[in-house]
Amino acid sequence: MTLLTMKFGGTSVGSPEALAQAALIILEQSQRWDRVVVVVSAMNGVTDALTRGAVTAAAGDDQTYRAIVTDLRARHYGTVASLFSPDGERARLLAMVDEYLDEFAAFCRSVHILGEVTPRAMDAITSLGERINARIMAALLRKHSLRSEAVDATELIVTDDTFQNAVPLMDKTRDRVLASLVPLMDSQNIPVVTGFIGATEQGVTTTLGRGGSDYSASILGSCLDADEVWIWTDVDGVMTADPRLVPEARVIPALSASEVSELAYFGAKVLHPRTIWPVIERGIPLWVKNTFNPSCPGTRIVPELESSPGAIKAVTAIQGMSLVTVEGRGMMGVPGIAARTFAAVASQGASVLMISQASSEQSICFVLPTQAVSSVVHAIEKEMALELARRDINRVWSLDNVVIVTAVGAGIRSTPGVAARIFGALGRAGINVIAIAQGSSECSISLVVSSELAVEAVRQIHSQVILEN
Ligand code: ASP
Ligand code: MG
Fold first, then answer.
1. DSSP 168
2. What is the whole-number distance in angstroms between the Cα of residue 210 and the centre of ligand 1?
C-alpha cells in the first residue's frame, strides 16, 4: 500500500486559481498512490492578518481587526463563490467562513477589553486561517468526485504547551493519527488536515511556529510511515541562492538533511527548520515542488547523499546581524570565560548564530541579531565586571550592520581547497571578511561581511564557486 503526504503552502492555496491547481495535483496523485493525505496552509497573508488583528486589538485599537474581518470575508467569499456553484456546497462554505471569522472577531474583542494577547490566545486566533482553508479544499476535492474530509490537526498533533512554537509529542500523536486518519483512508477518503496547528493533551490549541505547515506534513508523514512527503510551494525547489539577489540561481536537484538544516538555519526560507527530522529519521524522502510548475521535479531531500557533485551547493545571507567581541589579553588560558560569556548571552534570551575564537585566546567573537545586542553587551559587562576592572578583559564591544554569508555543501568535507576558492573569489572582488567560522560538521563555511558588501559577496561566491563546479 503506497502512501503520499502532500502539503500545499499559502500561495499554493491562496486564490481560486491556485486552489483549483492544487486540487488537480491531488486528483492526479490520488490515481497514482493508494493513499493520499493532504495538509494545507491558510491562504497566503491570512496568518499575518489574523496576527495583526490580535496585536492591534491588544494595543487598544478596535477598528483594525474589524477591517481585517471585512477583508478576509471578501477574500474567502470570493474564493468560495468562484469555485462552488450555488447548488453545490457554496452556502454551507460561506456559513463556515462566517463562523470562523465571527470567532476571530469575538477573540479580538476580548483581547481588546483585556488589553493583552497571551501566546495561548494568539494560537487560538492564528489557527483560524488553516481551519477555513482545509474545509474549502476538502469541499473542492468532493467537487472533483473524490471522497474527502477536513480534519483539524488539534485532533491529531499532540504538543506540549509552548504556545506559538509547540513541540509535538510524537508517540501520542502517532496513536491519534493512526486511530483517526487510517479509518478515513480505509473508507477511500482523502483527509485534508490543517497545517500549522496542534493541541495540548488537554485539547488547548497550539501552533508549531510560523511556517509550521511544513512541519505538520512531516509529522503526519512520519506517523503514517508515508512513502514520500511532498511540500508544494511557489518556487521550483531549493535554490542555489535567493533569486532576488542572484538572478542566475538554479534549483538544487538533491540535498542531504544536514545541508538543508544548515540552509534553513542560515536564513534560506525553504522549509520550517524542524521539518526534515521526523521524516529523515524514518528514511522517508521529502520533496520540495512548485505547484505552478508541477512538471519540474523539484528538490529531493534525503538522509545522506552517496556522492555530491560540487562541494558548495548554495549560498545564503542573513541580514540584521551584529558582531560582539569580548577581548583582552588576560583571557588567555583562563577557563570559564567562554562559558560565562555565553551564559550571559543566554540570560538575555538571545540566540547566537556564529562563534569564532582565535587560538591566541585574546578575543571571543560571535554574531547575533542586532536587536539583542545592547542587552547582551550589558549582561556580559555585568558578568565580567571584575575582569574588566582588573583589565583582564579590555572591552566588550559590538559592530552593527554586518551580514553572515554562508556557503553550504556536504562536499566541503571531502574537497580540499573549497575555502581557498571562496576567499579567492571574495578577495578578487575586494570584499573584506571580518570573521570566519566553519562548523565541525564541515557542511558550511560562514563569514561575516559588512552589510553593504553582502549581496556582492553572495554573487561572487555563487558565480565563482557554485556555478564553476
Ligand atoms: N499559515 C502559517 C504561517 O503563515 C503556517 C504556514 O503557512 O506554514 O505561518
Ligand atoms: Mg512556508
1. B
2. 5
Confidence at residue 306, expressed as pLDDT on a 0 to 100 scale: 65
- Residue 256 amino acid letter: S
CA distance 195 to 309: 35
CA proximity to 168, closest of 176, 180, 160, 179: 160
pTM of the model: 0.87
Ligand 1, atom 5, residue with closest C-alpha: 211
Q: Which of 44, 210, 272, 288 to mutate to test the pocket of ligand 1 (most atoms within 8 A of CB)?
A: 210
Rounded distance from Cα 211 to ligand 1 centre (Å): 4
C-alpha cell read off for 287: 520533496
What's the topology of domain 3-234? Carbamate kinase (3.40.1160)
Cα–Cα distance for residue pair 254/29, rounded to 1 Å: 22
Q: Please give the grid coordinates belonging to residue 303.
A: 538522509
Contact by Cβ (8 Å): 56, 69? no
Residue 240 near residue 315 (C-beta atoms within 8 A): yes
Alpha-carbon distance of 127 to 119, in angstroms, equals 12
Q: Residues 434, 450: contact at Cβ < 8 Å?
A: yes
| Mean pLDDT, the chain, whole residue set | 93
Residue 434: its pLDDT value, please? 92
Domain boundaries defined on the chain: 3-234, 314-466
- CA R_g for the chain: 24
Q: State in Å: Cα 445 to ligand 1 middle.
A: 30
- Whole-number Å distance between alpha carbons of 72 and 86: 20
Q: Which grid cell is 51?
A: 496576527
Ligand nearest to the CA of 209: 1
Predicted confidence at residue 424, as pLDDT, reads 93
Is 148 a residue whose pLDDT tops 90? yes
pLDDT at 362 over 70: yes
Say how far apart CA 450 and CA 444 lie, in whole Å: 19
Topology of 314-466 in CATH? VC0802-like (3.30.2130)
CA 270 – ligand 2 centroid, Å: 7
C-alpha 180 to ligand 2 mean position (Å): 26
Pocket of ligand 1 (CB under 6 A): 9-10, 41-42, 47, 129, 195-196, 210-213
pLDDT in tens, 15-60: 999 999 999 999 999 999 999 999 999 999 999 999 999 999 999 9
The strand pair at 395-408 and 444-450 is best described as antiparallel
Do 314-466 and 3-234 have the same topology in CATH?
no
Residues with CB under 5 A from ligand 2 (ion): 9, 211
